[in-house]
Amino acid sequence: MDTLREFLAAHGVRSKSGKLLGKEAVAQILTNPIYYGHFKYAGEVHEGTHQPIISKKLFDEVQAVLTRRFRWSKLKKPIVPKPFSGLLRCRECNSAITAEIQKGHTYYRCTKKNKACRCTQPYIREEALDIEISRLLSPFSLKSEWADDMLVRLDGERKLDAQASNIVVAEKRAGIAQINARLQRLLDGFLDGVIEREVYAAEKAKLMSEKKTLEEQSSALSIGRKTWLEPMRNWILDAKSAGEIALTGSRNEKKVLASKVFGSNLVLDGKKASGSAIKPFALLREAATNSEMVGVTGLEPVTSSMSRMRSSQLSYTPIGRKG
């Protein structure tokens, strides 16, 4: 380490006071991922577009040496992820479920912050909770062939919707052009002294109001086509991947999906997780239970449960809120 400090100093890399860099400063340089092509921003690592100057393999070898030979380092210890923290609440006292590390294992437990209740809930290891979350997610998987068929039909709906919207938008824009022409003629008449100021002002205000209305309607039509199409597409993709995530997904992926499926409805009771799904996932399970997943024409199957999935997108429930 001292040799490296002297090398950096010889090449002009010193502290602000002109002295050799401290060992901590050198260690921070050696652990910066920017040299192999990544960079840190706001606590996250991102891929850079710059040319790396070392390989990732060499970087990893340096990290191994630092870990083995410089245990004195005061660098921040790597944060151990606790993916299921904040996902569930305690059924007994309704307090949040938190996580802590004991003897190398992550345990989840009730925070027991409800003073009105003497909570008796036990700890649960992360591996066991992982199995519980996977069990809850499995029923909300949409078969791949059904999902693909729905996506094809959705694309068809998108095209039809866009065509219809474009026709109406063109009509609105034509109306705006007509109003602009009328406004110009009105201004010409006023400037030529043909139209009195009071008449000009009143007529202009009326035309400007009509123009604003048409502009807002045109803008709303351009945006409105996404109000259910995009949420519906995202939901289909989530449901399609639910089975794979439940089986082989990372714990973070399971947390994200569980938040979409259950919102804030997940609870832990006696080392067992449970929760009621929010729309539209709740309708998916209802449809699967009733064997209604058979479609004919159009985007939605002709059944009541699946048709309600589309309408539920119009009131799309944000993650973390109850449906």
Question: How would you explain this protein's 3D organization?
Answer:
The protein has 323 residues and is mainly alpha-helical. Helices cover 54% and strands 9% of the residues. The chain has a 3-stranded mixed beta sheet with strand order 3-7-8. β4 (97-102) and β5 form a beta hairpin.
Keywords:
Hect, E3 ligase catalytic domain fold, disordered C terminus, mainly alpha, 3-stranded mixed sheet, 323 residues, 3-stranded antiparallel sheet, 8 strands, 54% helix
The total of helices stands at 10
Distance between the termini: 58 Å
Largest sheet: 3 strands, mixed
Unreliable segments of 5+ consecutive residues: 291-306, 312-323
Strand content: 5-15%
Which SSEs are present, and which pair or pack?
Layout: H1 2-10, H2 23-30, E1 38-41, E2 44-47, H3 56-69, E3 89-90, E4 97-102, E5 105-110, E6 124-125, H4 126-137, H5 144-191, H6 197-224, H7 226-248, H8 251-262, E7 267-269, E8 272-274, H9 281-289, H10 304-313
Parallel strand pairs: 3-7
Antiparallel strand pairs: 1-2, 4-5, 5-6, 7-8
Helix pairs in contact: 4-7, 4-8, 5-6, 5-7, 7-10, 9-10
Brief digest:
With 323 residues, the chain is mostly helical. 54% of the residues lie in helices and 9% in strands.
